[in-house]
Specification:
The chain is built from 19 helices and nine strands. With 400 residues, the chain is an alpha/beta fold. The chain has two domains: 193 residues, Alpha-Beta Barrel (TIM Barrel), CATH 3.20.20.450; 192 residues, Orthogonal Bundle (Hypothetical protein af1432). The radius of gyration is 24 Å and the shape is elongated.
Length: 400
């Protein structure tokens, strides 16, 4: 199980039994909900949803509730999260401090949505949240809450969700509470979602952060990205998460880096660092080796046949195996991602010079000698260059 990422998703239903939203729940590599650090769990859930599963694929048209403790609320990492998709369910064990209250007010003004997480509703809870109640949109009320206590929020403009509805008796109790939404095992157990794990090397991420913070040139930052195709893949998922809206079609990592900007890139890399357990390192699977080898080959071949297409070739290499990583078809991915037409046609139809290069790389991987011979002859590739490329394709040159 250690080579996969897991997340649990439980539906929240309206009173007609229709899905209103989901709650996303932390699961570790053993599919356990063992949480040692609340902030770490929150960041892990959000990073997995955005960078690994993709919010469109995971949530569809719905939003998701995610637990958020004071430490997470105060951290700048929250600013990297697409607020259109997530509702932050506050977990406060005591009265809210002024600095946290001010932070919630600021984020609310910026469009973030807040809830009170699962609670036995009583006067102490109301006291703890009193200073921010006007900024709360939902309260998740444990079904064990005494019915008389529901009146504590009756006059507030807050939607209510009965939680932990696990059997017929509790469903009956929830209906008596006259809530807006329902959640619990009685309706649906949390569904475990699984994704091939492709966490990036922490050293590479830190090196990228350093490059950006040292105010290096865009070209230097791009060069660092191109050393880590797996980071590049997650960057593509990030910019297509709903946080950015580009008028231009994307055709290279340099274009992506330029459009996103250094500040947002740094914040995103921080999200990656905080969501990667220390000491876990890079999961060195055959699939990841294939990604690294392919992107390298794409660049090397482009240098021979069309030097103006090197960055584009890298970009094609990065996304050409995303269907395998994410378990969806290439056509679906191309529909979800904001990709330039030339790149799309190279991947879907093998059209254009980029499509030819990709086909040649695949031919090298599969030892398709007929296609290899035709390509070598067409572009007059020397025997020495071909032998070098063949050696790399077979896996003997991996230090890239």
């Amino acid at each position: 199980m250690g080579n996969s990422t897991y997340i649990a998703k439980q539906p929240i239903l309206d009173t007609n039994g229709e899905v209103f939203a989901y709650e996303l729940l932390y699961r570790d590599t053993e599919v356990s909900s063992n949480i040692k650090n609340r902030k770490q769990a929150t960041v892990s859930v959000l990073s997995s949803a955005i960078n690994k599963f993709g919010v469109n694929k995971l949530l569809g048209e719905y939003k998701a509730f995610v637990k958020a403790d004071p430490e997470f609320i105060m951290h700048n990492v929250i600013e990297t999260i697409p607020k259109e998709y997530f509702i932050f369910a506050l977990q406060f064990d005591e009265e809210i401090k002024n600095k946290v209250k001010d932070r919630i007010i600021q984020l609310h003004k910026e469009g973030y949505t807040f809830a009170i997480n699962d609670t036995i509703l009583n006067e102490d809870v109301i006291k703890n949240y009193q200073s921010v109640l006007k900024y709360i949109s939902y309260v998740k009320i444990d079904v064990e809450t005494p019915l008389n206590n529901i009146s504590l929020i009756k006059d507030l403009n807050i939607k209510t969700i009965a939680t932990k509805v696990e059997d017929t008796d509790k469903e009956s109790t929830a209906k008596k509470m006259d809530v807006d939404f329902l959640q619990g095992f009685f309706f649906s157990v949390p569904k475990i979602e699984k994704q091939e794990k492709f966490d990036s090397e922490v050293e590479n991420i830190i090196r990228l952060c350093n490059k950006i913070m040292q105010d290096c040139s865009i070209d230097e930052i791009v060069e660092e990205f191109e050393k880590s195709p797996l980071v590049s893949i997650q960057l593509l998922k990030f910019i297509n998460s709903g946080l950015f809206h580009f008028r231009q079609k994307l055709s290279s990592i340099k274009q992506v880096v330029t459009l996103v900007g250094k500040t947002k890139l740094t914040q995103w890399l921080m999200l990656m660092i905080y969501s990667t357990p220390r000491g876990e390192g890079f999961v060195n699977t055959l699939l990841f080796d294939r990604v690294r080898s392919r992107t390298y080959l794409m660049q090397e071949i482009a240098k021979i046949v069309d030097k103006n297409k090197v960055s584009n070739a890298y970009f094609v290499g990065v996304i050409s195996l995303m269907d395998t990583l994410f378990g969806v078809s290439k056509r679906t991915l191309m529909h979800e991602l904001h990709i330039d037409k030339e790149i799309k046609e190279a991947i879907l139809k093998n059209d254009g010079i980029l499509g030819e290069i990709l086909s040649f790389v695949i031919a090298l991987e599969e030892f398709n000698t007929e296609f290899i011979d035709d390509f070598i002859e067409k572009y007059n590739i020397s025997q020495e260059s071909f032998e070098y490329l063949s050696l790399n394709a077979s896996g003997d040159l991996r230090d890239i």
